[in-house]
Amino acid sequence: MIGNMKNLLFLFLITSSTFLYCQNFSDIEEFSKYIGKDFNSIQNDYKLSASESGTEFGIDSKVYKYKSFAIIISEIEDNNLIGEINLTPISSKNNSEIWYQNIKETNSNHNYFFVKAFIKNEKDSFFDKTINYNELIKKVREIGISNDVLTEICYKKDMLYYSFSLFRNSFSVKISSDNPLKNF
User: Hey, what's the signal peptide range on this chain (predicted)?
Assistant: First the structure.
């Protein structure tokens, strides 16, 4: 009986960690609405204050903490408008599963169109940039996600690109009006 309770508790913690520790698909869609708006709009709507900010060559960037993830917003041009949003979990718990659940949901949503995916390792012993969603998932399941494997998959919805990256158990989503994988 106690063993079953422990198993149920363990299963609950594993499955709920996706929702407790990181952004989910609805968060991603919600924040995408701020591309093209000024920095104050996201700050005012979510009552956020930047934990860090900086400017490089006239391009502003700000970092916010929201729920259990960091939001990094940046200009693409020197115009005080958000051109790129990065969402990254603060915790590293279960990031490969969070990455998988987000791309699975994106891939099954007919409003999102597949752009490109790739998988590679740091030693360049393999690099595949011509794979689709199903091939990427198959390859990830075959080789596993080790510390030297980078996976990225990109989708487009309307005029925005959504790029999902997983590297060294770090997961991030980049939302941008510019295709982040155009050079691959």
Answer: 1-22
- Yes or no: say if 45 and 31 are a contact pair by the CB < 8 Å rule: no
| Rounded distance between C-alpha atoms, residue 20 and residue 29, angstroms | 18
pLDDT at 130: 76
Long-range Cβ pairs for the range 28-32 (8 Å, 24+): 28/87, 28/102, 28/162, 28/173, 28/175, 31/71, 31/85, 31/87, 31/175, 32/85, 32/157, 32/160, 32/162, 32/175
User: Are 172 and 27 spatial neighbours (Cβ–Cβ below 8 Å)?
Assistant: no
Rounded to the nearest 5°, which phi and psi values hold at 12?
Answer: -60, -45
Helix or strand holding residue 9 (H, E): helix 2-21
Write down the residue that tokens 């009552």 correspond to. 47
Quickly state the pLDDT bin for 161 (edges 50, 70, 90).
Answer: very high
Q: Look-up: residue for tokens 């729920």?
A: 67
pLDDT at 146: 67
- Residue 10 has a pLDDT of 36
Q: 0.85 exceeded by the pTM?
A: no
Locate the domains of the chain by residue range: 23-176
pLDDT band at 21 (very low <50, low <70, confident <90, very high): very low
* Burial label, 27 (beta-carbon count in 10 A; 0-12, 13-18, 19+): middle
Count Cβ atoms below 10 Å from residue 69 Cβ, excluding itself: 21
